[in-house]
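Here is one chain, start to finish.
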Amino acid sequence: MLDQIIDCIVESADGTRPVHIVRPDGLAGFLDTLPPAQSGFLRDTTFAAKAGELRFLPGPDGVTGAVLGIGTDRSPFVFGDLPMQLPETSAWRLEPGDYDHAAATLGYCLGAYRYTRFRSGGRKAASLFAPSEHKASLSQASAHWMVRDLINTPANILGPVELADFAVSLADRYGAVSEVFADAGLEEAYPTIAAVGRGSVRPPRVVIFHWRGGSATDASPLLSLCGKGVCFDTGGYDLKPSAGMLRMKKDMGGAATVLGLARIVMEADLPIRLAVRVGCVENSVSGTAMRPSDVLRTRSGLTVEIGNTDAEGRLVLCDLLDEASEEVPSLLVDCATLTGAARVALGPDLPALFSNDDGMADALLKLGNVVHDPLWRLPLWAGYDDWLKSPIADMNNVSSKPLAGSIVAALYLQRFVGRSVPWMHIDLYAWNDQSRPGRPEGGEAMAMRALFALAKEGFLSSMETFAGNVTQS
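Its structure:
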């Protein structure tokens, strides 16, 4: 997965055929540039340059080129069906037009992805020429493929140890300094993660790595990332129904997203410092598993009554957030497939954003729209904070009411974030329920490109413009 090559890309335009990109308002002018036989063919086949509409241009020796309509779509995904629409063994280049060429390369690569590890045969994507200046698009595509592969890998192949090993390999590739916690060391440093993992024969792991850009100094901004890496979630003693368990290999989607983001940041050599923490664990059922009504002591010293063993993700994250806050990062971000309530509120495509910093949140939302990786902000509504009360511990891990589940989960996590630390919590789905252009069914990297845009374009300016905006409930 780490060394996977984007095999739909060729480095030379030699021998490639053209794909002309056309919008409806430019169709008439484009037809005038073609030989009469080709323009007549497009007219006779009622080509209207609608989004995703493809025609092949005939020539004396067969197909000489293609025309792709993109309608009014400005997203990279409008190019997502193209790899499988073009002949399998062919090679192509995108002609200039009214579109973002680098984004088109990204969209093409996103559409070419297939998870084929356990399948023989199958159709391969056509090849596309990508000029050298599209290096950033290929880096993001590679990270997407990596994240998708991680999420799509069955849980019997990718358990906590394997996920931890992968994180270490990623850190090693980019010269980051990593540390792995296991066994007694993990029990002491991350007691709630240990409690979640105690029910499985596959032991939990925590991986931490630190990296800095080539031009970064000790004074450079610190971006701290925490990821929920639950490699499979049965729900524990509060067992999920069989239908609810079918996709639970994706419950490490937050960790996969954090690792994908870290990969892009390190490949881009951004002038920042980076800290990454991944809690790798399996939530299972056994005689040693945590029980409803158990009380756990977290890394911070706060105690938690277990109201529901299926609310394990917040237990994995709370110790990581507490430790990350001690470094006083310029921005702390956690990513997790945390609640079904967020999906009820926003559906599968919109990750829920919670933040204690309005400036950072606004910047991320705007940049997410720019790069077509949107999020939607939900409130850290202080009025629901006492729903986490427990009669025997400092808090419960679930609400006393069957409402506002994603908000209450975020409020739980907020208790472990330092009061002066700008923080974002992203509750994401990490999955495509069905295939769409550029987004094949299966695991998905959500909010990753938006967060990278923030790290690259808006991180420093947001810090300077919105300093002091951190709020606490």
